[in-house]
Amino acid sequence: MKTDAVAASTPTTPSTPMRTNPVRRLLYSRGIAPYVFVLPFVLSFLIFFAYPVFSTVVMSFQEVLPGQTRFIGWDNYRHLWNDSFFTALRNNTRYTFWTLLILIPLPLVLAVFLNSKAMRWSGFFRSALFIPSLTSVVVAGTIFRLVFGQTDVAVMNMLRHAFGFETINWLAKSSTGMLVLVVLATWRYAGVNLIYFLSGLQSIPSDLYESAEIDGANKWNKFWRITVPLLKPVTIYVVTISIYGGYAMFTESFMLWSGNHSPNDIGLTMLGYIYREGIEKNELGFGSAIGLALLAFLLAVNVVQLKFFGLFKKEED
Amino acid sequence: MSVRASSPWERILLLALFAVLAALALFPFYCLLLGSLKPSKELLRLGLNVRLQPDLLSLDNYRFLFSESARKYLFWYRNSVVITVIYTACCLLLSSMVGYGLAVYRFLGRNLIFVAVLFVMMVPVEIIMLPLYKLMISFRMIDTYRGIILPFVVTPLPIFFFRQYASGLPKDFLDAGRIDGCSEYGLFFRIMMPLMAPAFGAMAILQALASWNSFVWPMIVLKTNEMLTLPIGLASLLTPYGNNYDILIAGSVLAIVPILIVFVFFQRYFVSGLTVGGVKG
C-alpha cells in the first residue's frame, strides 16, 4: 500500500498516476503539497488568531452579557480613563524602565567579560547565570516572597540588620514592592540576555579588534567603537522583547502578592487588569478595550524605539 | 601575541567577580532546597532563612508529598507531564512541516503566509486572551488538555526557526529523492526530518520548557483542582489566608528537577534555540 502511494506520487514516472484515484493524485502533486505543509499554520492562524483579533475588536464596542450583547459605541474606551488603568500602566512602565536600565547594560558588559581572553571557566559561569531562567515564575516567585519575607529572620531582612537597618515588610509599599519585582527580573533574565549578547559578540570578526589594536586603540575605545555599535542588532532585539515582556508582566506580581489583589493595587499590571475585568468580573467588552489600548500603546512605543535606533544609525553612516 | 597579554590580576579579578555573581544566581536555589528540608511550621513562622539548623532537617516534606493527603500534587505533576509531552510533540511536527513548506517550495501566497507568521510573532498573545477564552467556552474546551494545547500548538517562533534551518540545507538531497521516486511527504519525513535533527533538539527543549512553565493561559482554561498543571497548582497553594508551605516548597524543588536534568545533558541546544530571533539577521 505504502509503496504504491510513493510510486503514484512521483511526477517523473508518467505511467503510474493512472492507477490511483484523482483526489490522492492531487494531494500528492507538487503543486498542492506545499499547501498541505502550511495548512496547520493557516488553520491555526484563522481560528486562533485572526478570528480572536476580529472578535476582540468587535467586543470592545459591546457590552457582552451572557445570552445578549449590546452595541455601546466608544463607552468601553471612555471607561478606560480611570485610576486602576493608570495605576496598572504606571506599574508596568516603571517595571519596564528599570528592567531596561539594568538588563541591557549589565548583561552586555558581563558578556564582554565572559568573552574576553583572560576569562577562565566561562562555560561554567554562563550556565550558572543562565540556570535561574529555567525556573517557572511560580517557583521563582515563591522563593522571592520568602527571601523578601516580612519576618526578622527572612534573608533580606537579616541583610538589613547586618547594615543596622530594621525589619520591613517589603511587599507593603509600592517602592520596595517594585524593588522585589526588579530584583526577581534581574535574577531570572540576566542570564538569558547574557546569552543573546554572547552570541552577538561571537559574530564580530576578531580582525576588527586586531587592526584597531595596531592603530593603537585601548580596551575602552574598542568597546565603544567596535563592540557596542556592532551589537546594535542584538541590542534592538533585546530591547524590543524587554518592552513586550515588561508590559506583559503579570505572573511575577500574581505570585508575590498571592493573587491579583495587592494593597492599593501596588502590584496591579495591565494583564492583571485585563484578567480582573475580563475573567473575574466577566466584562469581556471592557477587558477587550483594555487589551487593544495596551496593543496600541505597545506598537507606539516600539515605533518610537525603532525610530530612535534608526536615527542613530543615520548619524553613524 | 596579544592573547597572552592579560595580566594575572585581570584574570583573578574577573574570576572573583563571576564567582560572586554565580553565587548570587544560585543562592535562591540553596534557600529553596534548605527550606524544603525544614518543617513547614518553621517556614510559616519565620520565612525562608539561611540558618542550617541540622537538627531540624528531614525529608518529611517530600514524604508528605507522596502521601495520600497530598494526592492532588501527583495529579498536577501528571497533568504537566502529559500536556508538555503532547504539546511538544505536536508543536514540533506541525511547525517543522510549516517551516519546511515555507523554506523549500515557491508557491502562490508563500510570502503572504510568511508575513502572517511574523505578524503573529509581533502581537503579544495576552491581547487575545479574552476572545480565545470565549472561543474555548463555545468549543467546550474549558478545563481540558485540548483547550490548553490547541490554540498555541502551531506557534510562530518554531516555524520561523525551522524555516531558517531548512533554508540553509542543501536542496540536492530533495532532487535526488524525487528521482528515486519519493513523494513530497516522503521527502519531508525521510530526508528532511533527519537532516533537521539539531533544529528539533533545540525547539524540543525550548517548547517543552515553555509548556512546563506556562502559567497565564492554563490558569484561564483550567477550573477543577485535579486538572491543574504544576505551576497553577503550586500557585493555588498561596492564599491570603495561609499557605501550604509543605507541599509548596518541596513541590517547587521537584518541579525544577526535570528541567535541570535536561539542561545538564542538552545545554548546547538551549543556546542555539534561544538565539534564533536575535542574531540571525
TrEMBL record, chain B:
InterPro entries: MetI-like, MetI-like_sf. It is a multi-pass membrane protein. The chain crosses the membrane at residues 12-35, 81-105, 112-133, 145-166, 187-210, 247-266. It comes from the Bacteria. Keywords: Cell membrane, Membrane, Transmembrane, Transmembrane helix, Transport. Gene3D superfamilies: MetI-like. GO terms for cellular component: plasma membrane. GO terms for biological process: transmembrane transport. It is found in: Cell membrane. Residues 77-266 form the ABC transmembrane type-1 domain. PANTHER family: ABC TRANSPORTER PERMEASE PROTEIN MG189-RELATED-RELATED, ARABINOOLIGOSACCHARIDES TRANSPORT SYSTEM PERMEASE PROTEIN ARAQ. Belongs to the binding-protein-dependent transport system permease family. This is Carbohydrate ABC transporter permease.
